[in-house]
């Protein structure tokens, strides 16, 4: 194995534009929460954001706040606050970090954005259980605490073949949200506004897919770690034209890198797929370690999860049903394995890293033999690292570093 090199990763110039866009978003949310005329909805990250925007709500995404708590390493201090009111350390650490942050009265938003003192108070909480049950429990906690209505959609889970029956039941549930949302917002849903929001969201999704697909170039112009940062607008601003403008800018920069033969990791020798949640508090450490090993994590299920190519402005409810039910996390293991196999082929992957996130079983796909089945099917090795998305007490620097080093050594031996 060659000696680890000094890490050399290229910064994305568009990051400054994104920072400003995210700041605008958070200040607008804060202003809406403080105004007497605007309404705020909280929505799960793969919930019906388009419907909420079309109903005139400003939309806050608690998982985004959870990830901020993780990335700023505040989460570990917040989680015990939620544990103390009965929310187990074994359940979603986004939930426990976010609820703990509320109970402690501390948020990374006030550190990053002077003038913002707290999360924007919601007028309604809207969930979709497509990802897990925890989101419903999470939103219900706030519903009781703040005396705010909580409504949602219940999605089938572990779905193999998708059928019209799945989509039909979902579409009816999305439509059933309209009446309570109209009552809370105090205005009728304008079908044209919904159509326009769906069109913008679909365009955002298409652009985000194009951004991620640039990772198929050799060398890859971006890493998974870049993706986790630059996905911000696709998560919190889909349906808003500014997200689309941002991805046009980012895409142009990545295409230029490809044209110039510039890789995100200098001297890229190996290409990995990241399966599972990021370890938010260790993004920089991971990015640095992989760069020093001349290994690029080029793609992930996680970043791909905000691609909704089924959204169709002419068929809003049914297409939302399709888009939000086809998600990887909703599917059976065999459907997930098909998907990962296609990604491995498309992104020219040499190995797969599974992150077993202790508090997120829904995104830890290593627990029922999938890595072994994929290794046999695809003929490429895997490594599993144990950790968590937010709770750094469940993560060992030493163990992860050693496992990653040994894995790259294994890849070196395979390539000679
Ligand atoms: S999918 Fe995992 S990280 Fe996301 S809300 Fe559910 S338990 Fe938490």
List the helices and strands and how they pair.
Layout: H1 15-34, E1 39-43, H2 49-54, E2 57-60, H3 62-71, H4 75-84, H5 93-104, H6 108-112, E3 124-128, H7 134-146, E4 150-153, H8 164-185, H9 191-213, H10 224-230, H11 232-236, H12 241-260, E5 270-275, H13 283-292, E6 295-300, H14 301-304, H15 316-325, H16 333-346, E7 351-357, H17 370-378, E8 382-387, H18 397-415
Parallel strand pairs: 1-2, 1-3, 3-4, 5-6, 5-7, 7-8
Helix pairs in contact: 1-12, 3-5, 4-5, 8-15, 9-12, 16-17
Please bin the fraction of helical residues: 40-55%
CATH architecture of the largest domain: 3-Layer(aba) Sandwich
The CATH topology of the largest domain, please?
Answer: Rossmann fold
Q: What strand line-up does the widest sheet have?
A: 2-1-3-4
How many beta strands in the DSSP annotation?
8
Radius of gyration (Å): 21 Å
CATH class of the largest domain: Alpha Beta
Derived from helix and strand composition plus strand pairing, the structural class reads: alpha/beta
Query: Averaged pLDDT, please?
Result: 96
Which ligands does the model contain, each kind named once?
iron/sulfur cluster
Proportion of residues in extended strands: 5-15%
Helix count from the secondary structure assignment: 18
Unreliable stretches (pLDDT < 50, length at least 5) are: none
From the spread of the alpha carbons, the general shape counts as globular
Number of domains: 2
Distance between the termini: 9 Å
How are helices and strands ordered from N to C? HEHEHHHHEHEHHHHHEHEHHHEHEH
Major sheet details: 4 strands, parallel
